[in-house]
Each structure stands twice: as C-alpha cells, then as structure tokens.
Amino acid sequence: MRASTQHVQDRLNQPYEHQSTSQLPIGTAVILAWLAGAMFMLSLAPYGYWIIALISPALLYALLLGPMSNKRAFIIGEAYGMGLWCVGAFWLYTSIHDYGDIPAPLALLAIAVMGLGMGLFHGFLALIFNRFVGKQPLAFAALWVLQEWLKTWLFTGFPWLFVGYAFTEQYWLSSLAPVAGVFAVSFVAVLLSASLVDAFRKRAGYLVVTALFIAVSIGLWLGNPAWTQPKPNSENIKVSLIQGNIPQDLKWLTDYRYKTLEIYATLSSTEWDQDMVIWPESSIPMFQTEAWPFITEVVKVAKQTDTTWVTGIPYKDEAAYQQETDKYAPFYNSVIALGAQADGLYKKQNLVPFGEYIPFQGALDLFPNLAGSQDIMSYSRGPANQSPLQVRGHNLGSAVCYEVAYPDTTRRNAQNTDFLLTISNDAWFGTSAGPLQHLQMVQMRSLETGRWFMRATNTGVTAIIDHTGKIVARAPQFERTVLRGEVQSRTGMTPYVRFGNTPILLLIGLMLVLSYLGKRSFKR
C-alpha cells in the first residue's frame, strides 16, 4: 500500500520534477533564451505584434522545464533578461552615444552591462522557479509579475518592458487594467503563454484556469463597467499643447536658452483664446528666479485672455535653503500652474539616476579633495502625496517625464483629480522606439486610472488620450507645432486607484506559497 501511494505521488509530480527529458546543450539553450528575450521588443510600440508577448515568455518557460541544476536555470534566465534589455532598451544608446559623447564601443559596452544587471531579475526568476516552486504555469506567471513589480522600486526602479503593455489596446485583456493594474494584465498573459506550452505537451489542466481569467477579462470588456463618470455640470477643457522641438544638443546651452523662450512664446501667441496652454518639461531652461521677468510677461498675457498656463520648469526652493547646513538651495524638476484660474506646483518624485541625481552622492563628502566633488549638484526628490494643481476649477494630477512609468506613483497622483498631465523631453532618445514605448505607458496609466491624459513633450510624442487609453489626438514627432484638442473631466475611482497593487500581490503570493507547499509535499 505504501509503495502504491509513493507511485501515485511520483506520477503526480512527474510532468515537472522527474520527467526524463534530453536537455539542449547549455550553449544552445542560452542562445535561444537570449533570442526569446530580444524578440519581446516586437510586441511593444511601435511594432505592436502582441502575439510576441505570448511567444517570448512561453519560450523561456519551455527552456526551464525538466530537471536541471540551479546554475543552468539561472544562466538561462539571465540570458533571457539580457536579450530583453539589450534589445528592448537599446534606445539608451542614443542618449549615451549621441548626447553623452561616449564612443560607440564604450556605449555598446554600457548597454551590455545594463542588460547584464537588469537580466538578474529574470535570472533569479528562473532560479526560484527551478529550486523552490513546482514547475507549472501559475508559479511561473506569479514569479514573472513579482520581478516586474520589483523593478518599480528596487534600487530606485527601472519599470520598463512589462508584458502587460503589449496588450494596451487589446481590450479583451487590458480590461483588467482598471481593476488591478498592468501587473494583472501581465499575469494573465504570461499564464496563458505557459499554459499553451503545457497544452502542447498534453498537460492542459492549467489552460482551464487560464480560460477562467480570460473569461473574466472579456466579460469586463463586454460589460464595460463605468468605473469613472464625466464630471457633472462640467464642459470639456480646450487645450493647446506646445511642442517646441528644441534640439537636445542646444537645449541647455546658455546662449540658446533665450532663443528657446522665444520659440515657445511665438508658438503660443495664437493660443491664448484656449482654456489651457501647456508647455513641456523644462521648456523654461532656467530656474524660475532667473526667468521671472519673462514669466511675469507671459502670466500677464494669460490673465488678460483668461487662459491657464502650465509649464515645466526647474524650480529652486530658496525658502528652504539653510546656509549653515546646505551647500545650495534644493531644486526640483517641476510643473507649475500660472495665469488665470491657476495655482500649484508639482515636484517630480521619481528621479533618473545619474541623469537627475547622483546615487550615494553623500559619499563624495568623504573625499573633499576629489576634483569637482563639491560642485556636483542633483535635483531633489519631490514628496509623495502632493496636492494636485488647480486649473479652471479642476484638480489636475501631474507626472514629469519617465515617472509616468511608475504605476503606483501615477495612481497616487491621480487620486482626487479630474484629469492628468505628463510633461516630457524625449529628445534624448532621438528616433528610437523609446518615446513610443513611453507613450504606450501613458495609455496604460489612463486605463488604470480612468482619466484623460495630456502629454506635452519637446519633440514628441505629444498626445491627448482618453480614459480608455485611446489616443484621440496626436502631433507628429520632430516638428515645431501645436496640438489642439479637448479633455474631459471625470470623477470616481477605478478599483486599481482605490486598492493599488495589493490585490495582485496577494494573488501571486498565494500562488507561490501553494506551489512551494505542493512541491514539498510531492518530495515527501
């Protein structure tokens, strides 16, 4: 009887732990894993082949099945992650080489090092999948979402290349976004991809579970629940988004900054009959203390025409300067509301490492004789839970540049708002896919929050997005132009805005615990 029981347990666990399979040579497996990660880029903007977002994780899942050493699993996962980041985030090369004046070989090396570091997320995913949990789709999908979530905060975060973004306009799946965010979309997509592999291997049990999740998503799509509603007794706001198209290599030159102000003033001269005129990130390329005479003149025109003016500007907080303890007054990458029916200042919370601040900068104080160490200045981090801007009797939530890629930051900024704004300068990334991927993330944030989004940029992509993530107006890239349109005020909160990532994190936590316990019971 005891032998029979052991035989049943062995059979139950056979598909994932004791199945006799022939392994690919490690070199072949690494190449396939790298290619599987690299191909993922084709699922995102501007390509949009969402089916690749199912194929890519499926290939990694298939490569990790069967018995193998933890070392082999880690190497395969690391190779996948390196392919994912070296190709998917290759737009960083433009910033490093073209505008950072780094020689091409060193720039390529920097991309490789970045890919190696970011690949660790998938490396440890594969290691945990192989060592601690049962090799089945629910555990794989849960680990996948766990590593995506970690990228939003670990070491300040780099929240890019999530599976869920590939389904931003696939409403049969993206309808989960307002319920539980982009991670819920990623979870079901990866679960589907792994379940299809199992079905191909004649293990279709998890495909039934996946079908239930997809049925819920399709039901939400067809049912179209009104998570948010148009604000009562409120007319649409007429806006003009000004795209200055200032070349990145000229933008911060002292001799060009007044030319920049002239360009934006000229483009805006015909727009003061609108409700709002919006300039992009750091369109005023100097502190407000230096630009105050210019700001005063623009505010005067805005008030005369009953127009709200919103602009990006580096903001120096001289009131917070303490001469006894501070080297200089703190300053912020900010967006400010001025002119008619306007008030408020938003300070960017998620800063770009080495671009806007130096990590561990305080350590430089230990080396006072290091040349230039006392002259390094960093933006300060804005506080969490800032009040929204006040514009024309509405609450406007803000995000500056790539912090819109942080789901939870945008969720918090969206609370108690009527519509949202992100300002950006993607000129750093030239004609690469980076700005288009960035726009796709804004679409997902609209879906998650049930709010209209305005995106004002220097070189593009300037756009207006509705509460379902659909682009309703878009300016061409790399043109000096104005995008005119209307935005709708909305009230109410989606489940995601109300509860955040807690539901999906509880779900994946439960999946991992059950999978761990199940694997332990099979080994007894």
TrEMBL record:
| Domain CN hydrolase intervals | 242-489
Q: Gene encoding this polypeptide?
A: lnt_1
Q: Which InterPro entries match?
A: Apolipo_AcylTrfase, C-N_Hydrolase, C-N_Hydrolase_sf, LNT_N
Q: Which family does it belong to?
A: Belongs to the CN hydrolase family. Apolipoprotein N-acyltransferase subfamily.
Instruction: Report which superkingdom the organism of origin falls in.
Output: Bacteria
Query: What Pfam families does UniProt report for this protein, alphabetically?
Result: CN_hydrolase (PF00795), LNT_N (PF20154)
Enzymatic class: transferase
**According to its UniProt record, in which pathway does this protein act?**
Protein modification; lipoprotein biosynthesis (N-acyl transfer)
Function, in words: Catalyzes the phospholipid dependent N-acylation of the N-terminal cysteine of apolipoprotein, the last step in lipoprotein maturation.
Q: Which NCBIfam families match?
A: lnt
- Which membrane topology describes this protein? Multi-pass membrane protein
One of the protein's GO biological processes: lipoprotein biosynthetic process
What is the official name of this protein in its record? Apolipoprotein N-acyltransferase
Give the enzyme's EC designation: 2.3.1.269
